[in-house]
Each structure stands twice: as C-alpha cells, then as structure tokens.
Amino acid sequence: MKVQVLGPADFRKMPWKNGLGVTIELAVARRSGEDGFDWRISTATVATAGPFSVFAGIDRSLAIVRGGSLTLSVEGRDDVTLTTQTSPYAFGGELAVSSTPVLESEGVPIDDFNVMTRRSEWQHTLVQHRLTDDVVTWALPAQADSVAFLYCAAGDGGVSVALANGEVVNVPSGHALRLDQIDAPACQLRAVGPSSDVFLTCVTRLHG
Questions:
Q1: For position 207, what pLDDT does the model report?
Q2: Are 105 and 74 in contact (CB under 8 A)?
Q3: Over 70: is that where the pLDDT of 208 sits?
Q4: What's the count of helices (H) and strands (E) in the chain, helices before strands?
Q5: What CA–CA distance (Å, rounded) separates 114 from 43?
Q6: ∠154-28-49 over CA atoms, to 5°?
Q7: 95/78 Cα distance (integer angstroms)
Q8: CB 99 within 8 A of CB 72
Q9: Within a 13 Å sphere around the CA of 60, how many CA atoms are in the beta-carbon half?
C-alpha cells in the first residue's frame, strides 16, 4: 500500500470555476476537458451569499469544517442548512445551487469540505467524525485503483492511524493521509489529543 502524509505545501490554492471564491485542492485526478478532473477533494471558504459553480456530470458531497452554518438552495429540492453537526450533503453538480452563510465570527469565513467525482466513471463516499478516546475503524475500499483520503481538520495532537501491517502514521491538524494501492480491509483511527475532527473519503472507479 502506498502511504502519503500531505500538508499545506502539497495543496494547491485556486479560484472557483465561477470566480466568486477560493478552493484549496487537497488531492485530484486530472484529465483534459472543461473541468479538468476525474475526481477532486478540496476545501473552500464561503463568506458571502452567492451561486455555486456548475459541474455537469459530477457528483458532489459537501460538509462544514468550521465557521458557522451554510444554507443551500438546490434546484428541485427543499433548502437545507449544513453545520459542523450535520452529515455531508450530496447533490449533482449540474444543479443550480446558491448558498447563504451565517458566520460565527464577523469577517471569518466558513470553511467547507468538498468531494467531486465524475459520475460516469467514479463514485465516492464521505463521512465526518469527531474522534475522542475511542478507536474508530475506517473501512477501506477493496478495489486496487481506489483511493482513501483522511483530512484532519482540527485537533491539538492530530490523528493516529494504525495500518493493518502494524505501521502507525500520525497526521497533524491541517494535514491529510492518502492511501493508494490498498491491500487491507481497514485501519484504526484515534485522536492523539482530547479530540480531533476528521473527514474520511473513499474514491472508487466504476467497473462494468
């Protein structure tokens, strides 16, 4: 299994597709074409109300990292309000979406976490956990060309990841762990300090 700990120096800052915000790419599988990726994992800041970029043929999941609440108005659906306590929200990238943030602190934008996959070829899962004293089992995908990605959003000591081969990897706050060529069914997660907030993503290629 290929194991990489990634930090801010590995991430790429770029403008939103519609130019109305900033995204930090944490991991991406690039391809030619308008959107330029097969899948992408990123964070973004939201400070003012406005529309989301349109990504035709892309499945999206979004969760709140910190900073307040975000109400989404999604084409054909009831409005939904996301906070750090709500589950990630999934929607199609071709839908018209606008967001209205409510900031916890004036002038400090909301940070959100995004996963996007090209629907015709890839699928993804996204969950978020607040780790404390308990050990959490993270189930990993079995497909050889899948990717598992952990982002530690907060926590003084970061996250300790025990791999099936006995190796233990520490992931500091603001860093990520990427697993490729996965050869184990699961790994074990534990907060190093009192608590840590993590986002867990698995990206899997569709076969058939």
A1: 77
A2: no
A3: no
A4: 0, 19
A5: 6
A6: 60
A7: 13
A8: yes
A9: 22
Residue 16: is its pLDDT beyond 90?
Answer: no
Cα separation, 167 vs 59, in Å, equals 33
Per the CB < 8 A criterion, the answer to whether 179 and 149 are in contact is: yes
Write the burial class of residue 96 (CB in 10 Å: 0-12 exposed, 13-18 middle, 19+ buried): exposed
CA distance 154 to 43: 14
Residue 93 identity: G
**For residue 66, which of 50, 82, 51, 79 has the smallest C-alpha distance?**
82
Residue 120 has pLDDT above 70, yes or no: yes
- 50-87 tens-digit pLDDT: 999 899 999 999 999 999 999 999 999 999 999 999 99
Read off the DSSP letter of residue 109. P
How much helix, strand and coil, in percent to the nearest 5, is found in the chain?
A: 0, 60, 40
Cα–Cα distance between 34 and 162 in angstroms, integer? 39
Task: Report whether pLDDT(19) > 80.
Answer: no
